[in-house]
Specification:
- Helix content is about 60%, strand content about 10%.
- The protein is rod-shaped and about 95 Å long.
- With about 170 residues, it is mainly alpha-helical.
- The protein has seven helices and five strands.
- Strands 3-5-4 form a three-stranded antiparallel β-sheet. A two-stranded antiparallel sheet has the order 1-2.
- It has helices spanning about 10-20, 25-45, 45-75, 100-110, 120-125, 130-140, 160-170; strands at about 80, 90-95, 115, 145, 155.
Length: about 170
């Protein structure tokens, strides 16, 4: 059966290019394949291929975002100190989103030879009890500071909690 219809010049050019690239220049064959593909999409038969294509595209976008985030993370300066006992280097803090008071708490805990009580932190940082509680809560939420698990509430930099336990056992 022959049909007559009108299409724009841009669509005609696209049709010609697709036919040349995929159907050896056969425009009719290209149109029949496009109609069949569109029918499958409308009837749900092509949904899996369409969904797979969309997922693949989204994964590509996510990979690009992960690479951009990794690049940004690599540019963040990290201050480290050497641990005299093990010779290992550990991260003291990432200077992102920390207030001056939070840095003071981290620095005080980093300089301490053992976990500190709340009273010790209050004395050494000279922060108000309310400010110190708030900062400790934020630092614990960020995973930078931990509470000891004994009956006394003491605080330590997260990476130092195991070494503190070992020091207590050795005493």
């Amino acid at each position: 059966m022959r049909r007559k219809f009108t299409i724009t010049e841009a669509l005609d050019q696209t049709l010609e290019e697709m036919a040349t690239r995929h159907y050896q220049g056969n425009v009719s064959l290209c149109l029949r394949a496009a109609i069949e593909s569109h029918r499958e999409s409308l009837e749900g038969e092509g949904d899996r291929e369409l969904a797979a294509h969309q997922i693949k595209r989204q994964l590509g976008e996510l990979e690009q975002q992960v690479q951009e985030l990794q690049t940004e993370l690599n540019e963040i300066p990290i201050e480290t100190t050497g641990d005299d006992n093990t010779g290992e280097s550990r991260s003291v803090w990432l200077d992102v989103g920390m207030t001056t008071e939070m840095r003071a708490v981290v620095q005080t805990l980093g300089e301490a030879s053992s976990p500190l009580r709340l009273e010790d932190l209050l004395e050494q940082t000279e922060l108000s009890p309310r400010q110190l509680q708030s900062d400790l809560s934020n630092l614990i939420d960020q995973g930078l500071v931990s509470k000891t698990l004994d009956e006394r509430q003491r605080f330590v930099l997260t990476g130092d909690i195991n070494s503190a336990r070992e020091k207590e056992r050795g005493r």
